């Protein structure tokens, strides 16, 4: 039974799932930066730039309310391969030299990709839950989260270099190749498995399970805490390009570094008793440094503030641990998919709100205002986030980590 990071990679199928996921994260970061830069250069609109980077996340709302039951009712390998190929094709289409004044076509494609992505989280994390013993899921998820932080640092840094050397369109084509690589790894290295649940996917089934999961209970507060503060701060991140067009890659890379530090800190230093008290303070740290953007800090200081704030993303893994503790096992896959889709959807909402505020004021002012909104939401939720039970012994003895997805 895997209880350490190293032993996870001896578990059959963990490594190819990990590699495919990492390739997709790298592709997502590179393509988002490239597309945001491309749209901003064409329009000089902070709102359109933010929506081009995080617009697919908005479609997660529609996917979570209509398609999410399919995450447990389709073969995992085939579904993951198909979604990766769809992103490869869509990203390649975005790289075509179509006239950007037809922005509606760009955003229509972004919406379609977001609908495809709405299945991704539930399928991937449900498969991880199958591959690993139940008491090792959080440990395995932490490996993905910390790897995602490293991959985002590398992806944003590489994306910034490629935008300079190749152009945004060349960077998009590179990202498309990474998506295709992820599809190949999934198809060739994972074992075909039957769907986790019987029956045909349907909107009715999706709605019924969503209502069950979101009924008044500790789960509702946990979902809101996983979605809203996180989403608003991603709205701040969506303004990096208009805030510092020549240093956006640096800001994104430093934010990803802060996420990694948060994961490692929670994993190595926080014992069970401390973890039960860290959730709200980390959410406040997630937003606090962005208040200083109202002073228009220079890029180097802005990068340091972004890194410090992103340490607060460590709260997400603590909340996921509690979510699994209060969710019936038969709903775990759908619950994780709802968390992933809702989180990404709120990131899109956060980008839209921050972009609108930047359009009316300035990127710096909008970032500070969005951070203040995140702090307000956290304080309103704080009372409902008090732990109702200690973590299970199996989780308490294992190192943990956290985020994206």
Rg, rounded, reads: 20 Å
Overall mean pLDDT: 82
Low-confidence stretches: 390-405
Give the number of DSSP strands: 0
Relative helix content: over 70%
Sheet having the most strands: none
**CA-CA gap between termini:** 25 Å
**Which percent band covers the strand fraction?**
under 5%
Structural class: mainly alpha
Helix count from the secondary structure assignment: 18
What general outline do the C-alpha atoms trace? globular
The succession of helices and strands, N to C, reads: HHHHHHHHHHHHHHHHHH
Question: What can you tell me about this protein's structure?
Answer:
This protein starts with a helix and ends in a 9-residue tail after the last helix. It has 18 helices and no strands. Residues 390-405 have low confidence and may be disordered. The chain is globular and about 50 Å long. The chain has 405 residues and is an all-alpha fold.
Gist of the model:
The protein is an all-alpha fold. The protein is 74% helix and 0% strand.
List keywords for this structure.
405 residues, mainly alpha, 18 helices, single chain
